[in-house]
TrEMBL record, chain A:
Signal peptide: none annotated. One of its GO terms (molecular function) is ferrous iron transmembrane transporter activity. The chain crosses the membrane at residues 218-240, 278-302, 322-346, 358-382, 394-417, 459-478, 490-509, 516-537, 549-571, 592-613. GO terms for cellular component: plasma membrane. Residues 9-175 form the FeoB-type G domain. This is Ferrous iron transport protein B. It comes from Gimibacter soli. Keywords: Membrane, Transmembrane, Transmembrane helix.
UniProtKB/TrEMBL annotation, chain B:
This is FeoA family protein. The keyword Endoplasmic reticulum does not apply. Residues 9-87 form the Ferrous iron transporter FeoA-like domain. Keywords: Iron. InterPro entries: Fe-transptr_FeoA-like, FeoA, FeoA_core_dom, Transcriptional_repressor_C. It holds the Pfam family FeoA. GO terms for molecular function: transition metal ion binding.
Length: 618, 88
């Protein structure tokens, strides 16, 4: 009789040129939420997931590549996997080759390269809706016959052709692997691919007119840079003004909860832990969620529309003046959200020295975790006024200035690093500009949801833990009899803070700030939470009701506040940034260089800011 | 620059609006030419395709944006100079 068959896991790789809609197809097939962006190099790592409805099939989403001779670390990931050179995993059992139907002549060349590997293959002819709209008609059966593999029309984002491609993938496992065949020279291969494309193209189509029209505006020599600069400016203004209402609501909610707890629970350490430790600490971070979501909405929309690559082109000249190229702009812009994806996205940069330089300066891009720090101090010290005839909020302007100084110093640092590292060769700048697409609301929404989860998880884990530890250290030992200062001054936190304060005194930092910098290493926004807890513990009962903003406004001088802002333009890096830098550069040398140079700059900047501000206010 | 029919030109020397049919991608021009030519080919540049300069950067007129076949590619003039086009 038949023995129960153990179902063998089938490993299928999704491969294609950048911008062919590969990650969107992967998401639709697996139900996973892989990041989808409309720029080359959005996928820099392999991701895998089980196909929905066929759990024995594992799909692997590989970074997009133009050929099987890799030019950059992300492309190498793909090639190593396909040739079984990867030490991390076995060679896949089959390939889904994703082709962009609107650019068949170019993408078919890669399909021919893939077919020569000998792995069983099925072709997903993607973006067929766009092709149809442009008037392109393709003889799908003819294409399948000429390629010798099944070809299925798909529109990944609209879930068209998904059942068919799943069926075809299911059959792949039973297909035999061929021996790899030799490829003709690249030039001949291009000719073969174009001839094949010509044979199966029934109607040529008119091209993507809207893309040409939008480019005439966005890449215009005068309007282009103005639009780019305005977009960035509006983005930072929006972070401030749009977030005001929801932030007030969260603030009110936390304060209400604290009041309710104070009324309900008896006075004692439990109440203090909940109110001063957890709610004051975690609450002061959670309040920044609306701002972070607004920032991400902008970045996600810019990414998925295809505008971000245009920005890289507009920025190339500026980047090349410090020895980098426009390609570095994309990792650097994502570093505004968080340095970690930014540092990983640097894999799309082919030249190792350019890549290293980009990694080293990525932390100077103001990440969203620094938003809470900036916002808190700005709200406490910068008046909420309009300048320039009421056009622009002063607080937003200061925020913009902080972001800008991060960028300026990043460029200066890049200039220095390139001098130190470079062999003087200019690296080529070559970037495909994808067609514009209306950003898919669903992807933006999913992206925001992911971000919210990550943020709240951090608030619930790292920050919560740090706050509980801080509360314990800040509450014990108890003060001696007849103490004159607040209790916390006699606690471990007070002792540590006062020791650290000798180092930071030249910057105008008091012991409360010095002690908040330490948990700030775990994640930058924790510094705000720590200030919340430290001040809540030092305050008397009346002051606890006051918000942290009010406490700082009355507790710090303006020079101290400005020095604190200057400090945070440069430092400190969070532990995760250091860890990812170690992983990406393969050792401790570069993360330590990064830590050292940023710490030094931070100290210097805060010192100068404090002294200059002091001189002016005297 | 005046464009005459049949004249061969380097793509990197052209102004927006100018272009032609690609007749060659040089591989022996500069130290990195062979490698860069391969990159250009992999990205989609090939003989017999039409290439037209669409835009140039407002800062120093470099890099440029080129329409090649059905694609749009941004690249610097130095690399674009490996591409020889014939006006028509």
């Amino acid at each position: 009789m038949n023995a129960p068959e153990t179902v063998k896991t089938l490993r299928i790789a999704l491969v294609g040129n950048p911008n062919c809609g590969k990650s969107a197809l992967f998401n639709t097939l697996t139900g996973l939420r892989q990041k989808v962006a409309n720029y080359p190099g959005a996928t820099v790592e392999r991701h895998s997931g089980r196909m929905t409805g066929a759990s024995h099939i594992e799909l692997i989403d590989l970074p997009g590549t133009y050929s099987l001779t890799p030019k950059s670390p992300d492309e190498a990931v793909t090639c190593d996997a396909l040739f079984g050179r990867s030490t991390l995993e076995a060679r896949p059992d089959g390939i889904v080759c994703v082709l962009d139907a609107t650019n068949l002549g170019q993408h078919l060349r890669f399909a021919l390269e893939l077919k020569a590997t000998g792995l069983p293959m099925v072709v997903a002819l993607n973006m067929t809706d766009l092709a149809r709209r442009e008037g392109i008609e393709i003889d799908v059966e003819g294409l399948a016959k000429r390629l010798g593999v099944p070809v299925i029309e798909t529109v990944a984002v609209r879930k068209t052709g998904i059942a068919e491609i799943k069926a075809a993938i299911g059959v792949l496992g039973t297909a035999a692997e061929h021996a790899p065949t030799d490829l003709p020279p690249l030039r001949q291969l291009q000719r073969d691919a174009r001839a094949m494309a010509r044979d199966v193209t029934l109607a040529e189509g008119s091209g993507h007119k809207i893309t040409r029209q939008l480019d005439a505006l966005f890449l215009h020599p005068v309007a282009g840079p103005i639009i780019l600069f305005s977009l960035l400016f509006v983005m930072f203004q929006a972070v401030f003004s749009w977030a005001e209402a929801p932030m007030d609501m969260i603030d009110g909610g936390v304060a209400g909860l604290q009041g309710w707890l104070a009324d309900t629970l008896p006075d004692g350490w439990v109440l203090s832990l909940l109110n001063d430790g957890i709610l004051a600490g975690v609450g002061s971070v959670v309040i920044f969620l609306p701002q972070i979501l607004i920032l991400f909405t902008f970045i996600l929309a810019l990414e998925s529309s295809g505008y971000l690559v245009r920005a890289a082109y507009l920025m190339d000249r500026l980047m090349s003046s410090v020895g980098l190229n426009g390609r570095a702009f994309i990792p650097l812009l994502s570093s505004f959200a968080c340095a970690i994806p930014g540092i990983m996205a640097a894999r799309t940069i082919a030249d190792p020295k350019d890549r290293l330089t980009t990694i080293l300066i990525a932390p100077l891009m103001t990440c969203s975790a620094r938003l809470p720090v900036y916002t808190l101090v700005i709200a406490a010290f910068i008046p909420n006024e309009s300048v320039w005839g009421g056009m622009v909020g002063l607080q937003g302007l200061v925020m913009f200035g902080l972001y800008l100084s991060g960028i300026v110093f990043a460029l200066l640092a890049a200039f220095v690093f390139k001098r130190l590292l470079s062999d003087g060769q200019r690296q080529p700048f070559l970037l495909e500009l994808p067609k514009y697409q209306v950003p898919h609301l669903r992807y933006i929404f999913v992206g925001l949801l992911e971000r919210t989860k990550v943020f709240l998880r951090r608030a619930g884990t790292i920050i919560l833990t740090a706050m509980i530890i801080l509360w314990v250290l800040g509450s014990y030992p108890l003060p001696p009899e007849g103490a004159t200062e607040p209790d916390i001054a006699y606690s471990y936190v007070g002792i540590i803070g006062k020791a650290l304060a000798t180092v930071f005194a030249p910057l105008g930092f008091n012991w409360e700030i010095s002690v908040a910098l330490v948990p700030g290493l775990a994640a930058r926004e924790v510094a705000v939470a720590a200030l919340g807890t430290v001040y809540a513990l030092s305050g008397d009962e009346d002051m606890v009701a006051d918000s942290l903003v009010g406490l700082l406004a009355s507790g710090w001088t303006l020079p101290t506040a400005l020095a604190f802002l200057a400090w945070y333009v440069f430092a400190p890096q969070c532990l995760s940034t250091i860890a990812v830098t170690k992983r990406e550069t393969g050792g401790w040398k570069w993360p330590l260089v990064m830590l050292g140079y940023l710490f030094g700059l931070a100290y210097l900047a805060a010192f100068l800011t404090y002294r200059i501000a002091l001189a002016f206010s005297a | 620059m005046l464009q005459q029919t049949g004249e061969t030109m380097r793509l990197g020397t052209l102004a927006p609006g100018q272009g032609g049919r690609i007749v060659a991608i040089e591989e022996a021009d500069t130290p990195n030419a062979a490698e860069n030519a391969e990159r250009l080919r992999e990205l989609g540049f090939a003989e017999e395709l039409d290439a037209t300069v669409l835009h140039q950067s407002p800062f120093g007129r470099d890099p440029i944006v080129v329409a090649v076949g059905s694609m749009t590619v941004a690249l610097r003039r130095a690399e674009a100079n490996l591409i020889v086009v014939k006006s028509q």
